[in-house]
Design brief:
By secondary structure, the chain is of the alpha/beta class. The model has no long low-confidence stretch (mean pLDDT 94). It folds into 2 domains: 238 residues, TIM Barrel (Alpha-Beta Barrel), CATH 3.20.20.20; 103 residues, Sulfite Reductase Hemoprotein, domain 1 (2-Layer Sandwich). The protein has 12 helices and 15 strands. The strands form 3 sheets. It has an 8-stranded parallel beta sheet with strand order 8-7-6-5-4-3-10-9. A 5-stranded mixed beta sheet has the order 11-12-13-14-15. A two-stranded antiparallel ribbon has the order 1-2. It is elongated, with a radius of gyration of 23 Å. Bound molecules: iron/sulfur cluster.
Length: 360
Amino acid sequence: MKIKRRRTKSVRIGRIRIGSGNPIAIQSMLKVRARDIGKATDQLRSLELSGCDIVRLAVEEHRDAFAIRSLKRHTRLPLVADIHFDFRLALAAIEAGADKIRLNPGNIFKPNEVRDVIAAAKNSHCPIRIGANSGSLRIKSKDTAGALVKSVMDYLRIFKKSRFNDIVISLKGSDILDTIAAYKKIAGLCDHPLHLGITATGLPLDGIVKSSAGMGVLLFGGIGDTIRVSLLERPEEEVRVAKLLLNSLGIRKFGPELICCPTCGRCEVDLPKKAKKFQDLLDQLGPQDKARLKNTKIALMGCVVNGPGEAKEAALGIAFSRHKGALFQSGKVFGSVDLEEGENALFGMLKEDLGRMKKR
Ligand code: SF4
């Protein structure tokens, strides 16, 4: 089954295009100050390696806006300036070369200020995300979704009058159902690309579950052109979870997929430890090798009785007994290795496959 995506306008953010059938882009956010150039550069480098597509950074002061110019010399990642309260910070960020800015209709709402930002953005071909957030709106009714949509639609009127179309929209509520309802509603009212996210999610595991549930529903419905999994974690972890989410829905493939059984009473080895070791080996593959293996599933299973059959969709796998690892391909066992050698042997075979792919 293939997900049919909502039709939208296309918007260019630095070297990335979003919307209009372009791949759903993964965003994260710097968790250090933009003005701390050294730390920000290190985090950008790490995010680039992790496979992040777009990075947002908080612009609290003019020093953060000015830092964008320096940071852009160190990264190819598009940089999005996150602006609240003071429209002059948006003007400074655009001047410094931000690839997109995010405005919050809940705290920058004076029409003359918004118009000034739009004029500067138009001049610099800088797109704007209208990023509504239930926490910063004064919502009196119980209809949070309706209030989020209304705030965006009211804001959009200013943009329309200025004939500005390089727009991305997000409407984040802290309640998943409100957020889903708001996105579904706005999706039917405009054709601007949508950035998805669930905000204020709690501890990392809660965040992963809430983001997957909320964004999963929307993505399955074809809604969403960029995503951020907001986690109380390192930003690279946000990217990793976002990749897994897109991968699990078959929307984007990012590299070899490791599948493991949950184990049961038949398992006689420490499968979590072995799986972690094998994932570490996979993580060492370079981006090109990962891309070559993007449709490959590899299995680590907890017993020989059921493992090969339960993972027959895997191109390559190993099922462990107390002393041995049985190697299998498409559900059929073809050899065995010593227990301790299992992960390395499987990885070695994967590298041989890669070698053959490169020669083709
Ligand atoms: S593969 Fe074996 S150990 Fe793993 S869940 Fe299935 S039966 Fe249990």
